[in-house]
Amino acid sequence: MRVADTCRAGPVSLAGDAAHVMPPFAANGANTGIAGAHNLAWKLAALLRGQASEALLDSYDTERRPAGWFTADQSTHYTQQILDRSAPDPTLAHPYVLDAGGFQYTAGALIPRVGPDGDPEPTTRFDPCGRVGTRIPHRWLDVGHTRSTIDLAGPGRAILTRHRLPSLPRRAGDPHIDVHQADDVAFRDQDELVLLRPTSSPGEEPASTTHSTPCTPSSSQVSGHADVPGGDVHDLVRTAGPSAA
């Protein structure tokens, strides 16, 4: 396996096999490359639209190079396990596929959880609880099971909360943000809200695929957490705005 020393140098950013090469276990090379290109695309879009400085592009290396190392190491490990076996084992990949989807960014364009408990310890295991820096897990947003958290993935930011928040007036310099109320989502804190960051390239429609498996992750990352009472939602959004690195 090989992983680049850096994924960004001046005007050049590396993605795909230029950034990391690994054994072809469970198509991880392709999937990791797609995730990296996805990460880079929305940050470049924010820069080109004047919504962010180049500091946001620095977070591409901060977030994706550790993900490349983790995936390459795991792919090499499981490939060796396959080669060491005398007979194929179709269940060997199951835990790894879940863990690959549970990788957590511990630094980058994120904000830590706001509240007395702070952030839980970082994890490299699949733990679909909506940690900051992880993919938002599938949860139904309504009692009738017609709308999922997966549906929130799109080109803009989104807030997910149990509360019926008033419409957010635009302020100078504030990014556009959609607010979604969840009728039946198990938040750790009843007053909690979750901020999701952009996940689609410019011009793409928001993801609309609803999964029936509760542990299925999406491509949307949790950007931050906060408590609603006593706080200003705009302050949370501004803190985690595109220029944050």
TrEMBL record:
Keyword annotations: FAD, Flavoprotein
Keyword Transcription assigned: no
Annotated Low complexity bias: 206-220
Gene Ontology MF, one: oxidoreductase activity, acting on paired donors, with incorporation or reduction of molecular oxygen, NAD(P)H as one donor, and incorporation of one atom of oxygen
Gene3D superfamilies hit by this protein: 3.40.30.120, FAD/NAD(P)-binding domain
Residues annotated as domain FAD-binding: 2-74
Top-level taxon of origin: Bacteria
Keyword Flavoprotein: yes
Listed SUPFAM superfamilies: FAD/NAD(P)-binding domain
Region (Disordered): 197-245
The protein's required cofactors: FAD
Protein name (database record): FAD-binding domain-containing protein
Species this chain originates from: Parafrankia colletiae
